[in-house]
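Appendix B, example 12.
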Amino acid sequence: MRITLILAILQGCVGVDEDEAPAVLMYIYLLFQLCCCVGVDEDEAPAVLICVGVDEDEAPAVLMYICVFQLCCCVGVDEDEAPAVLMYICVFQLCCCVGVDEDEAPAVLMYICVFQLCCCVGVDEDEAPAVLMYICVFQLCCCSSCVGVDEDEAPDIDIYHCPNCEKTDGKSTMKNKKRNKQDTGQSGDIRAVQNGSQVFIKELRSRTFPSSEDVVVKLNGSQLTMDYLEEVGFNEPILVLKKDGLGMSMPAPTFYINDVENHVGPDVGVDVIDVTKQTDSKMKLKEFVDYYYSTSRKKVLNIINLEFSDKRMDSIVESPQIVRRLSWVENYWPDDALLGKPKVTKYCLIGVKDSYTDFHIECGGASVWYHVLKGEKIFFLIKPTSANLSLYERWRSSANHTEMFFADQVDKCYKCTLKQGQTLFIPSGWINAVLTPVDTLAFSGHFVHNLSVEMQMRAYEVEKRLKVNCLTPFPNFETACWYVGRHLLERFKVVYSVCPSYGLLSR
């Protein structure tokens, strides 16, 4: 990203020909590496330059000639100004690469800029703007906000024009990205839309989808029993409008984000998703809470994997009774096992408005339950047919899958809105995405069970082939399968001891 921005500046503002820009950049970088970052002094330069094919006797002259020639001839710097510009670029590159923290970069940049221009380099105040033009390279690399370039827009810039150049040359030109007609239903040169971006969210909100009434079963909490599932199966999502009868416990309606911090711990590290970029990073819970309550949120951040079964909040949240009855982890994992019990049963989800999680299958082919304590979530549900699973695997393995809306590739994608106080159960293998239209606090949990063994195995095989790093993994899934197998073997032994002929009769 930074290299393309530097080239854009060299072409747009500095006036370097498109074909020469890469060479100019390479020579400037070479000088910087030798003089500033690597710490090569004048005596050592020949030996270093020999590595790139320069004769030992000619090395010092060649190095200086390259630097001055490129600045004077290719970039258009006056011969008398070349040393000053060269020195200044090195200073700023040193600031960039030595490890100045991104948040501190603007202050460091301003200090070095004023000091070097006025004291060390000897640049007259009237000449400073011209010299600073060459330092746009550093500005875009380390502090894009200083030149008015949004961090998310930076990769899309083809030729950059600073505010002064805009008066004569117009605004910066953007790159065109081609999207495959098969992927998007469109053809021609259009800018790719990043899943999770503001443009994407706006488009998603405006689209229509088939009603989930066709696939989602609505039940009362007391109706969701083992007898019901064993008779009907658990192959379609189940929506329970009120938690009464589910046998689960939730905090009081007044419970909110600051209470989560108090019950989990302010210094607990959490994985936070930057929704616009669809990337994740680490921060302390108290830092996220500060962001959540801030009056101006510059980013859309989302927490989806705060597992708290070993925290104080565990005592006030209990999963639905049917989940505890079905769960392999709850029922078959030995308390004295060498491997710790997978922590997948209780998640706290904190999403701000416009949070979005792209299409995925739960790790280990697990089923999942969601309960919205405050706010609302919108689920986009796709059946796990053989065709859809194959399409999903192809889409997920594509290098630009974050620029393709997977629902466009399947026959039907159903929209299901989960409102405050409601609970949703999603079966194994269902491909789903989640939009958070308002600030939301929700709870969820994953569980594998006897009713979906085949689908769990199919989904797990897809997961292994894709080799995707998941923020909500199912640790030791294969070990859980072995414990279930051992349980079944013990049951068969008991049956056989009571009725030895059972094995023959069952053939």
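The radius of gyration is 30 Å. The chain has two domains: 2-174, 199-333+340-467+481-493.
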